[in-house]
Structure formats: structure tokens, C-alpha cells
Amino acid sequence: METRTMDPALKVWLRPEEAAMYLGIGRTRMYALIREEIPSVRVGRTRHIRRADLDSYMERRLAERH
């Protein structure tokens, strides 16, 4: 059986592990951000994060630096 994986940058909804890879951070830090700053939804037993929310988070972080 072949397993297909899609590039996280092309997906609309990401699992925490994919979101962490997308941001270039660790899984533990990603879960901390989900608890503190980044919205997520629970689907079954898994959390999902919109890629747009990850992009918004990074934009906010950039704006704070200036």
C-alpha cells in the first residue's frame, strides 16, 4: 500500500507535527503555541491548524520586531 504525503505548504489544514515543520520549530513548541496563541480545532483525536493562522502568527511576530 502506497502512502501519499502532501507538502505541508500546500495543505489548508495541518496536523501539529506538520505545522511545526512548516514553521521550522519543534513539536513541543508547536503544542505550546496551540495552547497560548494559535487557534486549532479538534477532529477526532487530532488537532488541526489552518495554515493561514500560522502565516498570521508569523506576520504578528514580524510586526512586533519593528
What do you see in this structure?
- It contains three helices and three strands.
- The chain has 66 residues and is of the alpha+beta class.
- It has one domain (11-65).
- A three-stranded antiparallel β-sheet has the order 1-3-2.
- A hairpin with a 2-residue loop joins strand 2 (41-43) and strand 3 (46-50).
- Helix 1 (16-23) packs across helix 2 (27-36).
- The chain is globular.
- The N and C termini lie far apart (50 Å).
How do the helices and strands follow one another from N- to C-terminus?
Answer: EHHEEH
**Helix count, DSSP H or I runs of 4 or more residues:** 3
| Residues in helices, as a percent range | 40-55%
* Number of domain units: 1
Report the principal-axis shape: globular
* Strand arrangement in the largest pleated sheet: 1-3-2
Number of strands: 3
Overall pLDDT score: 91
Separation of the first and last Cα atoms = 50 Å
Largest β sheet strand count, sense and barrel closure: 3 strands, antiparallel
- Computed over alpha carbons, the radius of gyration is 13 Å
What fraction of residues sit in β-strands?
15-25%
Report the structural category. alpha+beta
**Which ranges are low-confidence, i.e. pLDDT below 50, for 5 or more consecutive residues?**
none
Summarize the structure in short.
With about 70 residues, this protein is an alpha+beta fold. The chain has three helices and three strands. The protein has one domain (about 10-65).
